[in-house]
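To fix ideas, we quote verbatim one protein's residues and fold tokens.
>
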Amino acid sequence: MQDKVTTIKLRMMKERGEKISALTAYDYITAKILDESGIDIILVGDSAANVFAGYEYTLKISMEEMLYHTRAVKNGVKRALVIADMPFLSYQCGVEEAVRNAGNFLKAGASAVKLEGGKSVINIVKRLVDFGIPVMGHIGLTPQSVHKLGGYSVHGDSPDAERELMEDALALRDAGAFSIVLEKIVSECAKKITEKLEIPTIGIGAGKFCDGQILVYADMLGLNKEFHLKFVHIYANIYDDMLTAFKNYIKDVKEKKFPSEDESY
């Protein structure tokens, strides 16, 4: 088995120009398969709110739910770096609460936490890092701020917006973040940020120049039929395979073909 992925190894990968692969997971089986595939990072994303629980926004998922998903994912992982998303209001209400919640994620099995925001969360990032808790930043489109942002628009598409993102990225780096997710950012802007930083950038809808890429696993497996995001490449159509399998099972049960003699004791 390959060496375990660490935050230090991610930085070394950036230094030698090796791209970093990342996907989300919320359960043991998916995490186990991802780990066996050789993925570098498994993010226990607050996207579980949408993919797993069916909520409209990520804002609705709780600490208890995220800790449950983190424990389940960790049980399936031996090599990949497990990062837990800190959900809405788990870090915005004060440094002490942020430290307590981040610590609970590490107790649940995560090796690092991710939180959204730039300069507004710098004090929290510094404090977490001071306590030995690795932090991944997240700028650009930040889904927990969807109501403030007024939707899911592209970021970094003007000189002022680009400058603001660069300031956020540098502030996160200086605060001790080991990596930063760049979401839905104009490719050239993401390129400038990536070239400026010594720490890895992980893109999602931010073009090819980031040091790594992340997607929601259900999206790239074709499990989400409701919508298709421009930046998602679909690598399989598991939705159709599952639907066919379920229909075949129902048909066999109805026609008394399952279980057969071979499937009975």
In short: The mean pLDDT is 95. Residues 237-265 form one domain. The longest strand covers residues 135-140. The first helix runs from residue 7 to 15.
